[in-house]
Write a structure and sequence with these properties.
By secondary structure, this protein is of the alpha+beta class. The chain is built from four helices and six strands. It has a single domain, classed as Alpha-Beta Plaits.
Length: about 150
């Protein structure tokens, strides 16, 4: 059994993008080296929306990643930078990575809105535009991780 985490962030202004991109590089480097990280994907959607889809050995491994390093440093900034943010978790069996349409469906059905200081009208009910799945990039663990 593996643990899946999907996140969706909408950056509320272009002025936050340079710093967001720097943090994104750091968190991507961190996740690739994180203990328990199996595989994942990053989706740069339209209108400054970014999705992550990651598969972990356990919820604890994902939590350890989330509460450390670059990711921990990024979280307080995102509360101000985002006007929409949400997360959903579930478990899977086998080696198949969930698809982006599945992540979108689960987000809409079981996801929860994260805290943001400047929420859009769509934030609380997760009533966002359907994502474009073509711009997804895989994230693989670093070779020396395991």
């Amino acid at each position: 059994m593996a643990f899946v985490s999907a996140t969706r962030l909408r950056i509320r202004s272009l002025r936050f993008m340079p710093h967001f991109c720097l943090l994104l590089l750091g968190t991507r480097r961190q996740v690739k080296a994180a203990a328990g990280f199996q595989r994942g994907s990053l989706l740069a959607d339209r209108q400054l929306v970014f999705w992550t889809l990651t598969v972990w050995d356990s919820a604890g491994a994902m939590r350890d990643y989330m509460l450390a390093g670059a990711h921990r440093a990024a979280m307080p900034r995102l509360v101000n930078w985002c006007d929409e943010a949400s997360v959903v978790h579930w478990e899977i069996e086998g080696d198949a990575t969930p698809t982006w349409p599945e992540a979108d469906q689960r987000m809409r059905e079981k996801g929860r809105a994260s805290k943001v200081r400047h929420p859009s009208p769509r934030h609380a009910d997760l009533n966002y535009l359907p994502p474009r799945f073509a711009a997804a990039l895989p994230i693989a663990p670093s070779i020396n991780t395991q």
